[in-house]
Structure to design on (131 residues):
Protein backbone atom coordinates (compact mmCIF):
# COMPACT_ATOMS: atom_id res chain seq x y z
CA UNK A 1 0.00 0.00 0.00
CA UNK A 2 1.43 3.35 -1.03
CA UNK A 3 1.45 6.37 1.28
CA UNK A 4 -0.15 9.72 0.51
CA UNK A 5 2.41 12.32 -0.46
CA UNK A 6 2.42 15.51 1.59
CA UNK A 7 4.54 18.63 1.19
CA UNK A 8 6.59 17.61 4.24
CA UNK A 9 7.24 14.15 2.79
CA UNK A 10 8.07 15.68 -0.60
CA UNK A 11 10.76 17.85 0.99
CA UNK A 12 12.10 14.86 2.96
CA UNK A 13 12.20 12.76 -0.22
CA UNK A 14 14.00 15.52 -2.13
CA UNK A 15 16.63 15.66 0.61
CA UNK A 16 17.02 11.86 0.61
CA UNK A 17 17.20 11.81 -3.19
CA UNK A 18 20.02 14.37 -3.18
CA UNK A 19 21.94 12.44 -0.54
CA UNK A 20 21.47 9.05 -2.27
CA UNK A 21 22.02 10.09 -5.87
CA UNK A 22 25.67 10.47 -6.72
CA UNK A 23 25.68 8.84 -10.12
CA UNK A 24 23.26 8.49 -13.02
CA UNK A 25 24.94 6.34 -15.70
CA UNK A 26 22.81 7.66 -18.58
CA UNK A 27 24.15 11.17 -17.92
CA UNK A 28 27.72 10.26 -18.86
CA UNK A 29 28.81 12.57 -21.67
CA UNK A 30 25.59 14.60 -21.62
CA UNK A 31 26.37 18.32 -21.71
CA UNK A 32 22.96 19.74 -22.56
CA UNK A 33 21.56 21.21 -19.32
CA UNK A 34 17.94 20.68 -20.39
CA UNK A 35 18.60 16.98 -21.06
CA UNK A 36 20.37 16.58 -17.70
CA UNK A 37 17.48 18.29 -15.91
CA UNK A 38 14.88 16.14 -17.65
CA UNK A 39 16.67 12.91 -16.71
CA UNK A 40 17.04 13.98 -13.06
CA UNK A 41 13.37 15.10 -12.89
CA UNK A 42 12.17 11.78 -14.32
CA UNK A 43 14.36 9.82 -11.91
CA UNK A 44 13.00 11.80 -8.94
CA UNK A 45 9.38 11.39 -10.07
CA UNK A 46 9.89 7.61 -10.45
CA UNK A 47 11.41 7.59 -6.96
CA UNK A 48 8.27 9.26 -5.60
CA UNK A 49 5.86 7.04 -7.54
CA UNK A 50 7.45 3.87 -6.09
CA UNK A 51 6.41 4.75 -2.54
CA UNK A 52 3.61 7.30 -2.77
CA UNK A 53 0.22 7.88 -4.29
CA UNK A 54 1.16 10.84 -6.42
CA UNK A 55 -0.15 12.39 -9.61
CA UNK A 56 2.72 12.82 -12.05
CA UNK A 57 2.33 15.57 -14.62
CA UNK A 58 4.13 16.07 -17.90
CA UNK A 59 5.46 18.88 -20.04
CA UNK A 60 2.08 19.36 -21.71
CA UNK A 61 0.27 19.84 -18.38
CA UNK A 62 2.86 22.41 -17.32
CA UNK A 63 3.45 21.19 -13.77
CA UNK A 64 5.38 18.12 -12.65
CA UNK A 65 3.33 17.22 -9.55
CA UNK A 66 -0.14 18.68 -10.15
CA UNK A 67 -2.04 16.89 -7.37
CA UNK A 68 -4.44 19.06 -5.41
CA UNK A 69 -2.40 18.98 -2.19
CA UNK A 70 1.06 19.04 -3.79
CA UNK A 71 0.87 21.43 -6.78
CA UNK A 72 4.63 21.57 -7.26
CA UNK A 73 6.81 22.08 -10.29
CA UNK A 74 10.34 20.71 -10.35
CA UNK A 75 13.29 22.64 -11.76
CA UNK A 76 16.81 21.28 -12.09
CA UNK A 77 19.78 23.51 -12.88
CA UNK A 78 23.55 23.38 -12.92
CA UNK A 79 25.55 25.42 -10.43
CA UNK A 80 27.97 26.20 -13.28
CA UNK A 81 25.38 27.56 -15.68
CA UNK A 82 22.02 28.27 -14.03
CA UNK A 83 19.12 28.35 -16.43
CA UNK A 84 15.41 28.92 -16.51
CA UNK A 85 12.86 27.24 -18.72
CA UNK A 86 10.60 30.26 -18.82
CA UNK A 87 11.27 34.00 -19.15
CA UNK A 88 10.54 36.39 -16.30
CA UNK A 89 11.09 40.05 -15.52
CA UNK A 90 12.40 39.65 -11.98
CA UNK A 91 12.80 37.08 -9.19
CA UNK A 92 9.47 37.99 -7.55
CA UNK A 93 7.57 37.25 -10.74
CA UNK A 94 9.50 34.02 -11.23
CA UNK A 95 8.75 32.68 -7.76
CA UNK A 96 5.67 34.36 -6.33
CA UNK A 97 3.74 34.78 -9.56
CA UNK A 98 3.65 31.07 -10.35
CA UNK A 99 0.54 29.97 -8.47
CA UNK A 100 2.16 26.67 -7.44
CA UNK A 101 5.07 25.51 -5.29
CA UNK A 102 8.54 25.09 -6.72
CA UNK A 103 11.14 22.42 -5.94
CA UNK A 104 14.59 23.36 -7.23
CA UNK A 105 17.56 20.98 -7.47
CA UNK A 106 20.99 22.54 -8.05
CA UNK A 107 23.71 20.12 -9.15
CA UNK A 108 27.35 19.98 -10.13
CA UNK A 109 28.12 17.24 -12.69
CA UNK A 110 31.44 15.84 -13.72
CA UNK A 111 32.14 12.90 -16.00
CA UNK A 112 34.52 10.21 -14.73
CA UNK A 113 36.33 8.99 -17.83
CA UNK A 114 37.77 5.91 -16.06
CA UNK A 115 34.42 4.53 -14.93
CA UNK A 116 32.42 6.06 -17.81
CA UNK A 117 29.91 7.48 -15.36
CA UNK A 118 28.53 10.87 -14.48
CA UNK A 119 29.31 11.97 -10.94
CA UNK A 120 26.61 14.18 -9.45
CA UNK A 121 26.89 16.43 -6.47
CA UNK A 122 23.64 18.11 -5.49
CA UNK A 123 24.87 21.44 -4.19
CA UNK A 124 21.45 22.28 -2.77
CA UNK A 125 17.74 21.95 -3.15
CA UNK A 126 15.09 24.47 -2.27
CA UNK A 127 11.36 24.20 -1.74
CA UNK A 128 9.51 27.45 -2.36
CA UNK A 129 6.10 27.36 -0.70
CA UNK A 130 3.66 29.83 -2.25
CA UNK A 131 1.37 29.92 0.76
Amino acid sequence: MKLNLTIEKLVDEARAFCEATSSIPELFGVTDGKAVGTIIEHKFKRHLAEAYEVEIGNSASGIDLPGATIQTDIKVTSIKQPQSSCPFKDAKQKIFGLGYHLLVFVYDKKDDQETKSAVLNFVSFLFVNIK
User: Anything to note?
Assistant: The radius of gyration is 15 Å.
